[in-house]
Amino acid sequence: MFCRHDLVWLTGRGWDAAFAGAAAGQHAAVDQWRREDWPAVVRRADPGLAPLHVSLGIPWPPASDGTKGRIAFNASSADVARHSDALALEDASAAAPERWRPALKLLADRMPLRAYGSLAMQALTGQTYLTATSDIDVLFFPTDGDTLCAGLALLERHAALLPLDGEIVFPTGAAVSWKEWIGAGPVKARVLVKDAGAVRLAPMADLLATLEAA
């Protein structure tokens, strides 16, 4: 039902549970998210997660020293008011620095991508997440081998203009760093895969087979 990087808006009861489970120093952030009706972000499921629950995170803006933080908690599916896919790149790009926007628009026009990480959170909350060293994290969803090859070539070209990073998401939900995929070499290689509940190594050939089966 939920995929990593999905956005989740909680009910009042859901926020009550998040507040109760947060550390004392995190209560103000939970209250702000609730008050502003900002979404939490789906993360990899905690080990032993109860049935019909989802693991969520609230990432807050980096501190002045660059330190990042996140409140991690679990919520019942019954306490999810609504949820959506990660933010479309074209919608997130308005929050990017002006110098990035022309290249971002060109990229978004050529390929449907979704944004997560600092750019997405800045667009969703209006708070300052992007720094001079931030990446633009994107999700790429190929439907077959041809779109995988074309999309990777497009991302590689635009990486010369933008600090791009992110993941390929295969039809099964398995996600791989697109930079790692490009650098992995022959199809017999294995790559690090992240999915809803685990991190593992998998042969590239197995992932390519999921495109053929889709």
Automatic annotation (TrEMBL):
Keywords: Nucleotidyltransferase, Transferase. Pfam families: MdcG (PF10620), MdcG_N (PF20866). GO terms for molecular function: nucleotidyltransferase activity. Residues 4-84 form the Phosphoribosyl-dephospho-CoA transferase MdcG N-terminal domain. Residues 89-203 form the Phosphoribosyl-dephospho-CoA transferase MdcG C-terminal domain. It comes from the Bacteria. InterPro entries: Holo-ACP_synthase (IPR017557), MdcG_C (IPR049180), MdcG_N (IPR048903). This is Malonate decarboxylase holo-[acyl-carrier-protein] synthase. It comes from Massilia eurypsychrophila. The gene is mdcG.
